Amino acid sequence: MKTIQERQPIVYQTLFNALKHHALSHAYLFVGESGTGKQSTANWLASSFLCQDSTTPVACGNCSSCKRIHDQQHPDVHHLLPEGQSIKVNQMLAIKSHLGKSGMESAKQVLIVHQTERLTTAAANSLLKFIEEPEGELLVIFLTSNRQSVLPTIQSRCQVVYFQQIPSDELMSQFMSEGMLKKHAVLLAEIVNSTEQGLALYQEEWFEETVTIMEKWADYLSKRDPYAFVYVQQKIVPVFKDKTQQSWLFTCLTAHIKQTFLTQISTLSQEEEYFFVKLQNSALEATKKWQANVSFQNVCEQLAAKITK
């Protein structure tokens, strides 16, 4: 597994310099897609902030504090996550009793806020008090994949740190070096943002079967074969039973259509190019309908009917 320094060298150097010169901001907003290393970097920064080894500016990884943060057992590192669809005021009230005091083991505490875009306005306003007037030394790290949805009052009080996506061709090479088939490596490199995510998916028992079924359905759709509709009932619905697998189907289908289009674009007629664009847009539209709680089977059948008519 790559280190933070290897995966996000600019982020690492920025934070390393701040630690080295004792110039950490009181609050950071980490912005990046899932899999780019925001969570692991937040844990590393928390470890560096609370590390008991004063001979190094960054986490030693060996002291009791570093080990407990790694195991998520440190009493002075707090995590705030959504309950349901949002992070609510009552969650802030529960954490106030901790943040309103000095840390249990030192004057320092760390708060890591996950999916910051889900903070309600009331919860954010309650949190701002601790950012501006903390008891002791408080480091707050906000994580988000969508900066535009983070409240301006939060953004204005943070140093924003951007996490870059790993290039698809680099991911593909890494996957193939692990023994992955090229077609699977190409697909996963389009979908995930880290080697770890891709390898974890590849090792799932259902991976190969679901990809094979998706590819077959995509082939029927791209050929405008009416059997694409029947295939939904015979294979798609029986195999993709739960929400996770259904989400996986739509993600894979969209990525597969894109890759097929890019591979064949030099040989396609103008009419065929138009059809692939229509197919891609229809797959994205189907995904949105499913996310809006339209029946999975209905969405898939509507997609097949629209494309093959």
What are the segments in which pLDDT stays under 50 over at least 5 consecutive residues?
none
The main sheet comes to: 5 strands, parallel
What are the secondary-structure elements, in order, as H or E?
A: HHEHHEHEHEHEHHHHHHHH
Q: What would you call the shape?
A: elongated
Number of helices: 15
* Domain module count: 2
CATH class of the largest domain: Alpha Beta
Q: How far apart lie the N and C ends?
A: 48 Å
Q: Give the percentage of residues in beta strands.
A: 5-15%
CATH architectural grouping of the largest domain = 3-Layer(aba) Sandwich
Fourth-tier CATH superfamily name of the largest domain: P-loop containing nucleotide triphosphate hydrolases
Determine the mean pLDDT: 90
Radius of gyration: 23 Å
InterPro entries: DNA_pol_HolB (IPR004622), DNA_Rep/Repair_Clamp_Loader (IPR050238), P-loop_NTPase (IPR027417)
GO molecular function: 3'-5' exonuclease activity; DNA-directed DNA polymerase activity
Protein name: DNA polymerase III, delta' subunit
Pfam family, one: DNA_pol3_delta2
